[in-house]
Write a structure and sequence with these properties.
Layout: H1 21-54, H2 63-84, H3 89-109, H4 119-140, H5 146-149, H6 163-181, E1 183-184, H7 187-207, H8 210-214, H9 224-244, H10 253-258, H11 262-269, H12 282-299, H13 315-340, H14 348-367, E2 371-374, E3 378-383, H15 398-429, E4 434-437, E5 442-446, H16 449-456, E6 461-467, H17 492-496, H18 499-505, E7 514-519, E8 540-541, H19 556-565, E9 577-582, H20 591-602, E10 623-626, H21 642-651, E11 654-658, E12 680-685, E13 708-711, E14 715-719, E15 723-727, H22 730-747, H23 755-765, H24 786-789, H25 796-804
Helix pairs in contact: 1-2, 1-3, 1-9, 2-3, 3-4, 3-9, 4-7, 6-12, 6-13, 6-14, 7-12, 9-11, 11-13, 15-21, 19-22, 22-25, 23-25
Family: Belongs to the peptidase S8 family.
Pfam family, one: Peptidase_S8
GO molecular function, one term: serine-type endopeptidase activity
Length: about 800
């Protein structure tokens, strides 16, 4: 039954006096301006950040503070005029709300200076700053409505009937899409997200307090339309300003769609009156906004809302799904609440029952189609002492190389066992899950900032990095499949470097050599790759999903392996064998996953085996192709993988790595392992033997990079499912150089493990290429041609002939 209250004190006429036409026009124009000024910079700012990330450039620290402050000025000036000039109380309340919202955006936006990799620190700062801003705003925005001041009851006292539970129910409805598509991070991250959401809800309650709603007729049952439509619209723009500053870059995009329509819901919740004719106040605002922002804060990792994952149905896709679903829910709530509440307010029992139903539904969604559990980041603890491999005998030849690998493996394991013993014991005592590594003397550990601080203080620890962990998806991302026609003979890139002449004239195809690939995986059933798989129980490893047979969802690894050893005219060394490991999942990796695969390549082990005790170093591949880099967004620092490549160098395993696709900027070869001196780094050229614009350039401190270039534009190779695709990148060029090394070592087994001579032959037999002037170097070419093209274009025919001499 609709509650009946005795009449309260009359509301003074000016409190809801109709504004003049000029004031209305000014408010409408200011509102449209505010929406445009808020939405455009948020979307463009995120897009610019993603473009910088894709280009391999660091995000400028000043980007989001500048965006936030410019938005503050652009919105704050017209809002200030609305707050001061018109005589209408409603218009002035509009200006005050938008001015306060722009200030909140400016303050909260400054927090995005915290790198996204430190999400817990950002959430803690957001909770603290939002709460402090709410306290300050509450003092500055005290209501001046006489009707409220003259009433004994507090302006924001308990809401009548079931109004607050109805707000909770609306908030839970907005949370449902995130319970379906999202996944929580770590425990601390989730708790901090809840605190931050509560603080933002508290701030929203201050900005949209009882004084604000009174200006639009709250407490006057005879004018609900003005309150729901006009008050709700102004509240929605205010929420747009608030959520634009809430969340790291990317995490704020979804609530920009879902929260503003909730302003109409809040307006409808203010219609019911208490015995004194007062607005329902802050409590409904706090609950609805707090629950509305908790979803994107807790259930998405801002680093995964990235264009790097946009090629498949990954996190960006599901964030869009959640945003679209949330927008639909918000609109339904706005219409339902706006139509029903002015007519009849449900009793408290009904409202509480609605909350219970939605809570149970949310729990079922989360436990069923959702991704229950905690999926926080881990820590990579790098120890000070690394294995001493300087005096390992550099014996060439197949037998000599196998002996070197065994000795390197022994020293690495002994060093790790000795130096990690105390730390592992303490981690066991504290019940912190951990994974030890030997290739780099390091341990991956579960833990947050407190554990990180404790680990960093230990004397045996050199540094502690964040090891990224991708959160699960509600449905598989799907498998990338090729749409290009199959090859009809040796591809143009094979002919350009003369690999087809090696097969036909020198009768060398790579037989007897094994090429190892760490990438997104390999489709072993592809006709061009099936016969080349080495087989056995130690030729495949998947640290992400534990698959027992080679597979590839992303397609990148199948394509690159096809260019190295594929048959049917796509691979440089079609007679070589291959082994594989999955270090990229959905196009992203982490320091630990890169180490998982590199350790497997040094000393393969059977499924379920212990890398420390079950490794088989004599089964190590001869050549490694690595079309990946580990940037800071994945947790790497410039030196973290340096001990790993040094170990392969000592073991006589030839490591080839992609220069990167962040050209034409000079000094853009910077993601490990490409800058390392003991890695053979490869850039890309096109059909015209011209270095591609995307190919990363030197200089690199202390060493000339890239070492040489290979075809990397419009390269046709294998894709999962038996198809083919034409792709660009230094990723495509790198495996071709690995294939050339396989041809060289197959032609002269005495050259196996002789890394210095192999590198010299590759450089000495390379042919000139064309380089275009590039920005940033004193000579217009990054300090010299060597920093753009290295020694030139790899020549397979000349290199194999030189290897036989």
């Amino acid at each position: 039954m609709q509650p009946v209250y005795p009449p309260g004190p009359p509301v003074p006429p000016f409190a809801a006096a109709p504004p003049g036409p000029l004031a209305v026009v000014a408010a409408v124009l200011a509102g449209c301006w505010t929406v445009a000024v808020v939405l455009l910079p948020q979307v463009v700012g995120w897009g610019a950040e993603q473009a910088l990330l894709a280009s391999g450039l660091n995000r400028p620290v000043w980007l989001w503070p500048v965006v936030s402050l410019v938005t503050l000025v652009a919105v704050g000036v017209p809002a200030l005029l609305l707050a001061l000039v018109p005589r209408s109380g409603a218009v002035r309340a509009t200006g005050r709300a938008w001015l306060a919202g722009s200030v909140a955006l400016g303050v909260l936006g400054l927090l995005r200076m915290v790198p996204a990799v430190h999400h817990e620190a950002y959430l803690a700062a957001l909770a603290l700053v939002a709460a402090l801003t709410a306290v300050v705003a509450a003092r500055l925005l005290r209501s001046d409505t006489p009707a409220l001041a003259d009433t004994p009851a507090p302006a924001d006292g308990p809401s009548p009937g079931g109004v607050t539970p109805l707000a909770v129910a609306a908030g839970l409805a907005l949370l449902l899409p995130w319970l379906w598509v999202g996944a929580l991070g770590g425990l601390l991250e989730t708790v901090l997200a809840a605190l931050a959401a509560a603080a933002v809800g508290l701030l929203a309650g201050v900005l949209l307090d009882a004084g604000f709603w009174a200006r639009f007729g709250a407490g006057r049952p005879t004018r609900p339309a003005l309150l729901v439509l006009c008050g709700g619209l102004v509240a929605g723009v205010t929420l747009l300003l608030l959520v634009a500053g809430t969340g790291h870059s990317g995490a704020q995009l979804a609530p920009l769609l879902t929260l503003p329509p909730a302003g109409f819901v809040l307006g409808a919740l203010q219609v019911p009156t208490d015995p004194r004719g007062r607005p329902t106040g802050r409590a409904p605002v706090r609950w609805l906004v707090g629950l509305g922002v908790f979803g994107p804060l807790a259930f998405t990792d801002p680093e995964e809302v990235s264009l790097l994952l946009s090629t498949t149905r990954d996190v960006p896709f599901w964030v869009m799904v959640s945003a679209g679903t949330g927008l639909a829910v918000a609109l339904v709530l706005a219409v339902g609440y706006g139509v029903l509440l002015p007519r009849r307010v449900p009793g408290r029992r009904f409202a509480v029952a609605a909350v219970a139903v939605l809570a149970v539904a949310g729990a079922l969604v989360y436990a069923g189609p959702g991704q229950p559990g905690l999926h926080g980041e881990r820590l990579l603890v790098v120890l000070r002492q690394q294995a001493d491999l300087r005096d390992v005998p550099a014996t060439p030849g197949v037998a000599g190389r196998d002996a070197r690998v065994r000795e390197v493996y022994r020293r690495l394991v002994d060093t790790a066992d000795h130096t990690q013993a105390d730390l592992r014991q303490d981690l066991d005592r504290l019940r912190l899950a951990h994974t030890p590594y030997y290739l780099v003397n390091a341990i991956e550990v579960d833990g947050g900032p407190a554990v990180r601080a404790w680990l960093a203080s230990r004397p045996e620890v050199d540094r502690v990095l964040v090891s990224q962990r991708l959160r699960p998806l509600p449905a598989p991302a799907g498998t990338s499949r090729g749409d290009a026609a199959g090859p009809t003979g040796p591809e143009w890139n094979i002919r350009l470097i003369g690999a087809d002449r090696v097969w036909s004239e020198l009768d060398v195809d790579g037989s007897g050599i094994t090429v190892g690939s760490s990438d997104s995986g390999v489709d072993a059933g592809h006709p061009a790759l099936q016969a080349g798989f080495r087989g056995g129980d130690d030729s495949w490893y998947d640290p992400w999903e534990g698959s027992r047979s080679p597979r590839d969802k992303g397609g990148h690894g199948t394509h690159t392996m096809g260019s190295a050893v594929g048959r049917n005219g796509i691979g440089v060394a079609p007679g070589a064998n291959w082994t594989g490991c999955v270090n990229l999942d959905r196009n992203l990796g982490s320091p630990a996953r890169y180490l998982d695969c590199l350790q497997f390549m040094l000393a393969p082990f059977p499924p379920g085996g212990d890398p420390f005790t079950d490794g088989r170093p004599e089964r190590a591949p001869h050549v490694l192709t690595n079309s990946w880099g580990c940037p800071t967004i994945e947790g790497c620092d410039p030196h973290v993988l340096r001990p790993a490549t040094a170990a392969f160098d000592a073991a006589g395993v030839f490591v080839v790595a992609a220069a990167g696709n962040t050209g034409p900027y000079c000094g853009s070869i910077d993601d490990p392992t490409a800058p390392y001196a003991d890695v053979f780094t490869v850039g890309a050229v096109d059909r015209s033997r011209r270095v591609t614009d995307f190919s990363s350039r030197g200089p690199v401190p202390g060493v000339a990079k890239p070492d040489l270039v290979a075809p990397g534009a419009a390269v046709r190779s294998a894709m999962p499912g038996g198809g083919y695709s034409v792709l660009d990148g230094t990723s495509m060029a790198t495996p071709q150089v690995a294939g050339v090394v396989a041809l060289m070592w197959s032609a002269d087994p005495a050259l196996v493990g002789d890394l210095d001579r192999t590198r010299s032959i590759l450089r000495e037999t390379a042919t000139p290429v064309e380089t275009s002037p590039q920005p940033g170097g004193e000579t217009g070419s990054c300090g010299g041609t060597a920093n753009v093209a290295g020694a030139g274009l790899v020549d397979a025919y000349a290199a194999v002939r030189a290897a036989r001499v």
